[in-house]
Hints:
A: 46% helix; B: two-stranded antiparallel sheet; nucleotide-binding (chain A); hydrolase (chain A); GTP binding (chain A); EC 3.6.5.2 (chain A); G protein activity (chain A)
Amino acid sequence: MSKKPGAAQALHKVIMVGSGGVGKSALTLQFMYDEFVQDYEPTKADSYRKKVVLDGEEVQIDILDTAGQEDYAAIRDNYFRSGEGFLCVFSITEDDSFQATQEFREQILRVKNDENIPFLLVGNKSDLQEKRKVSLAEAQGRSQQWGVPYVETSAKTRENVDKVFFDLMREIRSRKIEDKAASNGRGKDRAKRKKKKCIIL
Amino acid sequence: MSEALAQHFITEEFTPEKFVKNLSSHCIGAEDLRHQRAKIQELADSISALLKLNVYQNYNQFIETAKEISHLETEMYQLSQLLSEQRSLLSIFGTNQNIVFENNFEIKSPTSVEFQFKEEESKLKLIQLLENVEGAMSLLETPGRMCLYEGSLLELDPVEGLPLKRIHAYLFNDVLMIASWLANGNRRGPPRYKMQVIYDLQSLAIVNIKDLGTVKLAFKLLSFPDTRVFQCTNAISKREWLEKCEQAKKLKIAQETQLKPIHTKKSTKMELLYTVSQSKYSETGTVGNNKIDKHHFYEPFPEWMLEVTEDLDSCIAQRHFEKAYKLIEKAKVFVNNALPTPQLNETTLKINSRSYFLINVLTRELELSVEAKSLQGGGLRSARRAVKLLIQMDHTAQACQLYLKLCSASLKARLKRVKREGTTVPYIKQLSAIAFSNIFELSQEFLKIFPQITNCASALVLWCSHEIKFLVSHLIKQMFIPQVSLSVLVECIIMIRNHCKQLTQMGMDFQYQLDNQLKIPLSRTLQDTGEKYMDAIKVRASEDNWKLSNLQTTQNFLNLLAELDNLGIPLPESCIKNKYWISLTNNTLAFAKLYIGLLEDCLNLITPETSNVIEEVLISVLQIQIQHIQSSIFNCKFKQDKNLMQDNAKYFHDVIIGRCLELYKSVIGYDFKKLLVLQEKFCFETISISNKPRPVPRTSIPKYSTTEFI
Lengths: 201, 710
């Protein structure tokens, strides 16, 4: 149980959230294995791990592909608690899935109790422009409101797939460094700053 | 030679040096020595072979013993498992009883009684399961909990994927329990575990690890702050685990959605599953009272009912059959009125099997008494008891059959005691009397035991018929032998008929059967008798010298008159010639007596079936005598005796044939037509020719005879 080698290689835990059928698993599988799965089969909860090179550093990414529908809030909370960063996915062809992101965001914030949790709003199925229901402006508006990046992807064409994962990993990495620094001495400050921000909001 | 050598080696004082010295001193030349050497070599070879064989045998024995030991070992293991099972069963009984007494208001709706049993059963399994898990007995407190899946898993480090330790996991319908292995000093017996942690399925996130580098067949549990990874032994096991977990979760959700409306209704199974425990502690007051109003109490069996099977066994064993029957009936009534529960069903099955057993015992009893040698009537009396019980238990047909068999046996035994002594008549008389009166008695007894059962009545009729048939065939063998005359036979047959008539009192008439059986031998005997008579008549006719009969004394004369009067063939006055002389020959008188006797016998026997034969016999016998008279009349040798012959012929015509016709008509009810024809012919041919011709009045024979002779 020596933790030395593990500590050498960073592990970033990413969680895919979003309504059912928006393409969470498709994005994950495209990222993991460079393949697009046409058949839809609802996911229960699958976990993947991959070694990637992030800005010249070899790290591991742990992806938890969650179910769009989870009956027990407590179970969903347990998923969220285990994550360090979130890809909140919706389908640009489905407005409901976009609306649902609001709820996911709230739940994540509640569970993680952290406004600055690494978080990306992902509009998937960008290859289906003709079926677009959610406008770019609308999505961007929401991401700005939350203070998170918005990226449009296509699991089918692999457009921006690597980008969302890598962007999120970078955020996670920077957060970890920040936290390390904070726990090393500026913990109080950070807590203060956070508190302040909450008050302002 | 080599054996002698071997013996030599075995001896205690054997020393190699001495042996060699001896050998070399005895042997002459190198050849002999070589020969000795070869011998010793041979011995050594055979000994080493023997040694090998020995070793091999020992080795085989060792293997067998080892096998036996391992066999015994498994047996011991099984035994210990059985013991532990029994122990757990006992402990369940203990706890169940406590539950019954503790929660008197643990109410069950009729449908839920069965459910309760299911629950108990699953609880039983649970107890067996958790027995091996230290510290897990608290899991038993939740009602309705059952184990859906269990298995050993390998826990991995969640980050590195390195194996940590082996654990045993139990999936229940509501929780997942992880238990660690306990070092088991004794390597036999079931493995022991120690409960580690319980995860509520409502909050446990189970993640299928699809890709963890080199780690395969793993899944992850997320229950903040724990993240645990477990590895399954194979793909099937992993799939089962995930599927079962998903099932459990779905089941729980389904139950919860059902549970909500139930809280207001308070009457289904789910409530029992999940709210009984709550209601016990929190909602006691009002809710509890409502429940009591709505449901029955679960009533345990009364004490006698619990012991009914044992009691039945002992009753049957002690041959208290009536008591056993009453107990069965009582139990059946109870079962019919009670609510159906598995326990009840089981008891019903047991009771049914006991009642079959009882029937078997009773049947066996009857069968044994049929076979028994000594049937002093007690057999039947004791059988009555068994038969009555069998009838009560709806086995009437069987009882009837067995009882009739018993009747047959008893009848046979009684008839065997009738020894054949002396003449035929008393034997036949006694035998048929005893047989028929016994059949009568047995039938009466039978009707008493089987009243109002029509099937049995027909069986009785058949039985009687069979018995009578058997009896009559025996009697026929005894009666129809040459030594027995027709008159004796007639006496016997009449007697048998009379005995047979007894049965008509019970509405059974077997006379037709009797007659039918008698018909063939009887016809033969009749014909034989007829022939015998004819032969005798011929002999006497040839010796006939046509003389008046001289009775010599008045006494003889009067005796004859009385005798003939008795026979219905009175002597006409015209025939009395002198003081002791009558104008009838001895031959005629003898024939008249004989013939009337034959006629009476025949008429006693006559039945519609035999009437033909009888008539033929009677006619042919009479014809022979008539022929004799006729031939005598036309015989010149007896010319001077013509008057005598006329008188004889007249006597025949008027008195004998007349009497025959009269008797026949009085017995049978109609005229003996053949005889009438014969009479007419006789009259025409004999009397009219020899005498002055005159018309014969056909109808009034008595009148004719009187006017003619007076």
